[in-house]
Amino acid sequence: QVQLVESGGGLVQAGGSLRLACAASRNIFNFYAMAWYRQVPGKRRELVTSIATGGSTNYADSVKGRFTISTDNAENTLYLQMNSLKPEDTAVYYCAADTVTGATMVRTWGQGTQVTVSS
Fold first, then answer.
1. Tens digits of per-residue pLDDT, 10-67?
2. Distance from the first to the final alpha carbon of the chain
3. Which of 82, 84, 95, 101 minimizes the C-alpha distance to 39?
């Protein structure tokens, strides 16, 4: 089973940028999809962006034009470049990976990394 470790979170002022990384324990080239989610206390975890094995991407309306998802297959790493950050982007950010074993889809989560945007 794959392990995922996020890094890159922190405190940033509104308008600033951060880049999150999610390092996988094995080759991500044949993963079905990978994604970034975020969650604030008392609310459901929400999808921020995803990338499928063919490279197609999907973004939540709230982050379109500001966030960019990408992968580095050589480094087995998923990235999230976050620009023009807003206080409402404050959350714990989680990466997720969907892999297929036989006929079973398995979702794996990272431990999360805190992003705090000050106004």
1. 999 999 999 999 999 998 888 999 999 999 999 999 999 999 988 899 999 999 999 9
2. 40
3. 95
Structure tokens at 106: 């398995």
> Which of 12, 83, 98, 96 has the alpha carbon at shortest distance from 47?
96
Contact by Cβ (8 Å): 70, 81: yes
Q: Which residue has the tokens 């034009």?
A: 65
3-class secondary-structure state, position 74: helix
Q: What is the DSSP letter of 29?
A: T
Other CB atoms closer than 10 Å to residue 78's CB: what's the count? Answer: 26
